[in-house]
Design goal:
Layout: H1 18-29, E1 49-58, E2 62-66, H2 71-88, E3 91-95, E4 104-108, E5 121-125, E6 130-134, H3 137-150, E7 167-175, E8 181-187, H4 195-206, E9 212-216, E10 218-219, E11 222-223, H5 232-235, E12 239-240, E13 261-262, H6 267-278, E14 283-290, H7 295-300, E15 322-325, E16 328-331, H8 342-358, E17 363-367, H9 374-377, H10 380-389, H11 394-411, E18 415-419, E19 432-435, H12 440-447, E20 452-454, H13 457-460, H14 481-484, E21 499-506, H15 514-521, H16 524-533, H17 541-558, E22 570-575, E23 581-586, E24 593-597, E25 614-615, E26 622-629, E27 632-633, E28 638-641, H18 642-656
Helix pairs in contact: 2-3, 4-6, 8-11
Amino acid sequence: MRAVSPVKPLLIIPEMKKLSLSICCCFITFLSFSQVSKTTLAIIPEPVKTITKTGEFILPKHVIIEAGASDEIKLVTTYLKNKLTTSTGALVTVKNISATPATIKLSLYKKQDTTLGKEGYHLWVSTKGIIIMANEPAGLFYGVQTLIQLFPKEIESAEVTPHVKWVAPCVDITDYPRFGWRGLMLDVSRHFFTKDEVKQYIDQMVRYKFNLLHMHLTDDEGWRIEIKSLPRLTTVGAYNVKKVGEFGNFTPPAPDEPRTYGGFYTQDDIRELVQYGKERFLNIMPEVDVPGHSLAAVVSYPELSCTPGAENYKVRSGEHIMNFAKGGLTALVDNTLNPSSEKTYAFLDKILTEVAQLFPFGYIHMGGDECAKNFWAQSDSVKALMQKEGLKNMEEVQSYFEKRLEKIVESKGKKFMGWDEIIEGGLGPDAAVMSWRGIKGGITASNLGHEVVMSPTTFAYLDYMQSDRVMEPHVYETLRLNKTYQFEPVPDSAVAKLILGGQGNLWTEQVFNFRQVEYMTWPRGMAIAESVWSPKEKKNWNDFYPRVEKQFPRLDEAEIKYAPSMYDPDFDASMGADSLVRVALNTEIPDLDIYYSFDNSYPDRFYPKYTEPLIVPKDATQLRVITYRGKQPIGRMVTMPVAELKSRIDKANRRGQ
């Protein structure tokens, strides 16, 4: 590995204006511009502006990083130093003396560049060195994330990788986010994930410039945060019976089955996670989901329920407790807090006093979704509340609850946020809304003057199946990568200035371990990242999916699991007049060949190639398919039972009747 000459001090004087600096870079490095396909860079999310130049930067064996000495800038230099030393084995020295020649220069503008905002950056890579400039340290950090994606995939390795040519292409990049709210939600209630696993998730998020982790900390299946004034929330509410299979259809646990499955985060754990995120310029937003989804709380403190017999309830282990029907949502056990009891509000005040002190982020999410009200309707105390407060229906009862809760949240110095159900019955004066049931709730809330974060099921629900259901844990919907990529956080009829941004949500009913968390998040999380960072006009599926493919080897190096579902075909079955099943196959990616068999053997490229809809032989029991690119198998072997195809046809026919 040969060393290169360090950057001259003249090149990296921070007060130089960006235009002069860019011209200077061009002059000193003697580089001419050449238009190279953006997909050769494979940066996700796509930067605002990229100019690719001839030549390449070669990382020397001794790297000098020059940067300021502030605590926040040290976070950036420490991160970059660790990344470089871990994989390349280079000796990396960090100095803050401007007279020292540097390999990589990180610098803040003395006069703000108004184009970049708080998180934008300029990145120049020349044959002589690398410069990243920004208004704030967060911008430097995101510039570093882009720089890392310019180096070979082995940069992601957790150990030194020999015999790699550590080069980066020469580029000029100007970049800044479209939205300030760029998040992923991780449900740690349905299944508990350890503190170290949450840290891994944060590390994976920031590589794609997410800046918010939304932690769904409470639900029917477990209470995951220590509240010192209410110890039973974790001694009782954090544990259930371990089950595997299809969530929601588990047999009810027997009385003697051990309730030892679960866990919780101590307050010290939370502080550690918050600090870990802060060191990566990521905030953590807590969610305490009330008044529905509160069985773990009710089991811990039965006096919070309006229903007699709540002391006999148990924390849910995945058994059936809710009915979702066209006529409305009903519960088989009362998993709600009593909106008519002052004990409920005193309970919530205690919780929020402690939660607000643990999480510096300005918003606290208080749920509000899927509140089954059938037990409220039977409660004399709720009926008395309705008469006293002039509430006409159960939606107004929940609105009464939410408005009181909003005041408690605000008394702790935080902003109140809830799922879009809190709109029903009337929004509180300053409530922020997270729109999940499509985009309608977000449009309504923004037009009422409320802040909105978009996370619609139609594009952003990462728990949905991402391939055909024969390949995935069964959930009620499928969300392919190309559909996720269509996510647009600002609908035409919304008030754009009130849309804070967007996020993807990973509910974990069917996610039993952290490797599956990764599998469900990536690559769909990349599509979410690009939707909330990159300019709307730059989004292009045909440009995006090749960049995703080039991310896969990088994830392999990092040993991060991901779904190869973009290579799996869709199956569209129909019945012909001859009573034979027909199957049309298509893929998200246009340049793949599909090979198939009906004879129970495993096809390869020497088998028949799919060119038109297939007629299923009368006695065939299964169709097997695999995708190829040229001579290389690229997709998974998919086995589709003919009985499943016929079942889908029958369901489609019933829906059409």
